[in-house]
Design a protein that fits this description.
The chain has helices spanning about 5-15, 15-25, 70, 80-95, 100-115, 125-140, 180-190, 215-225, 245-250, 305-315, 320-340, 375-380, 385-400, 415-435; strands at about 50, 55-60, 65, 120-125, 145-150, 175, 195-200, 230-235, 255-260, 270-275, 345-350, 355-360, 400, 410. It is of the alpha/beta class and about 450 residues long. The strands form three sheets. Strands 4-10-9-8-7-5-6 form a seven-stranded mixed beta sheet, sandwiched between helices. A four-stranded mixed beta sheet has the order 1-2-3-13. The longest helix has 23 residues, at about 320-340. Bound molecules: pyridoxal-5'-phosphate.
């Protein structure tokens, strides 16, 4: 059993190629050598050279079961053969025509077929661009400026999207209020100052680390309509991950605008705003200039991306990949929670196709294991526990399991029950090692 400094020493010994790359990278990338905050780890995360299905391999030949899955974009797994074939074919035919082409029409039609609220579609390069544009559209349509957002909901790193209080941010028109509090939403909307209410599909933080109450979500269409605010539902993570119709089809809600990203591009970068035709008239060149948006963006709907998106969306239509990912997530939660309970660890796995690990006080045992054992957002997001999640992440990496440092597992249709069994073994060994070395604090033990 690897414990204490022995874990770090063994990790360095078995990841020498990654260490060399990390030493080069720190001279260039200010974020301790990483190009995304999720890729920062002490001593370093592995440098990956290849991925296929549910697995990826690093420069030292170590194999991992991957639970990052392209930050949630790869519900089909890595390099799905139909996506690879489509992209290879398109690559040879041209990456970018700087012109209109059939593939963009086909991709938009596939989106419309799956998400009936999508009367119009506009493409961007990533999810946050779609969110920025949705805010602009809402402002033009309503003639108002303010944006209402919910605590812990994440929409990107741009000023008006990032977490409240982030350094260097100017977001004077944004008001962030508590989550799941309908009275507070109504109190704000009643001021009739808000252009947009922006909320995350599935709940806050990667498809529901903090779950959203369905009653709350279902009240939002009427409430926003009553006070003349545009409801933008951010389905960048949930868009076609939860169901062919997105999370909105699961929750039974219809927003005015939906933003999409991640899975829709089949693994290539994409963003989309879809929704009401009257709101999206701002893109129409006939619209008077004071209400018009000249839509630019070098990479919008480029043929290479569209080829991947079409191949992927065709597979999403049946709902089978989503169903498989969900079944594996159910299995991971079930087996993983047995491990936690056997060890009297005060924590639970919960949520849907992105399985979240909660460590902290168990306020009650939910009857439905998609829910965390507390409603207290502060406990769920408690930064004091970050070192525990990070330590677990390092143990798991050394066991061949790649998870994000915050402790969530993104499932795909390429994972297998054997993958989950192997993961649960690694999870239990890692937790045993943490109990032994004392990094799973006494507060997280029930006895
Ligand atoms: C809910 C949500 N919205 C928007 C974004 C931003 O998307 P992108 O990183 O593609 O700009 C993210 C990114 O993780 C997200 O989780």
């Amino acid at each position: 059993m690897l414990t204490g400094e022995g874990l770090v020493e063994e990790y360095r010994r078995t990841h020498q190629g990654s260490q060399k790359l990390h030493e080069r990278a720190v001279k260039t990338f200010a974020a301790n050598g990483a190009t995304h905050i999720v890729r920062v780890l002490d001593p370093f995360r592995p440098y990956i050279t290849r991925a296929q299905g549910s697995r990826k391999w690093d420069i030292d030949g170590n194999e991992y079961i991957d639970y990052l899955m392209g930050h949630g974009a790869l519900i089909l797994g890595h390099s799905h053969p139909e996506v690879v074939q489509a992209v290879q074919k398109q690559m040879a035919k041209g990456v970018h025509y700087g012109e209109n082409h059939e593939l963009e029409v086909e991709l938009a039609e596939l989106i419309k077929a799956m998400m009936p609220m999508a009367e119009r579609v506009a493409f961007f390069s990533c999810g946050q661009e779609a969110n920025m544009m949705a805010i602009r559209l809402g402002r033009i349509f309503t003639g108002r400026k303010k944006v209402l957002r919910l605590q812990e909901n994440f929409h990107g790193w741009a000023d008006e999207l990032v977490h409240e209080g982030s350094a260097g941010v100017v977001a004077d028109q944004v008001n962030v209020i508590p989550f799941n509090d309908l009275d507070k939403v109504e109190e704000e909307l009643a001021k009739k100052e808000y252009a947009v209410l922006l909320t995350e599909g599935g709940g806050a933080f990667m498809n529901g680390r903090v779950p959203i109450d369905f009653d709350f979500a279902q009240a939002l269409p009427d409430l926003t309509k009553k006070y003349g605010t545009i409801w933008v539902l951010d389905e960048v993570v949930t868009g076609f991950r939860d169901a062919p119709g997105g999370w909105q089809s699961v929750a039974g809600v219809k927003p005015d605008l939906t933003t999409l990203g991640k899975c829709v591009g089949g693994g290539l970068p994409i963003g989309a705003v879809v929704g009401r035709a009257d709101i999206m008239e701002a893109f129409n060149p006939e619209t008077p200039p004071e209400r018009r948006i000249p839509h630019t963006g070098t990479w919008n709907a480029n043929p290479l991306l569209c080829s991947a998106g079409i191949a992927a969306c065709k597979l999403y239509q049946s709902g089978e990949p989503q169903k498989k990912a969900r079944q594996l997530a159910d299995y991971l939660r079930e087996r993983g929670n047995e491990v936690l309970k056997e060890r009297d660890i005060s924590g639970r796995l919960y949520s849907r196709t992105v399985v979240h690990l909660y460590l902290g006080t168990i306020d009650y045992e939910p009857s439905d294991d998609t829910m965390p054992p507390t409603e207290d957002i502060k406990k769920i997001m408690d930064p004091a526990l970050d070192p525990v999640y990070t330590r677990l992440c390092l143990h798991l990496l050394q066991h061949g399991i790649a998870v994000a440092t915050k402790g969530f597992y993104v499932l795909s249709a390429a994972h297998t029950t054997e993958d989950v069994d192997q993961t649960v073994d690694a999870f239990s060994d890692s937790l045993d090692a943490m109990i032994e070395e004392g990094t799973l604090s006494q507060a997280l033990r029930v006895r």
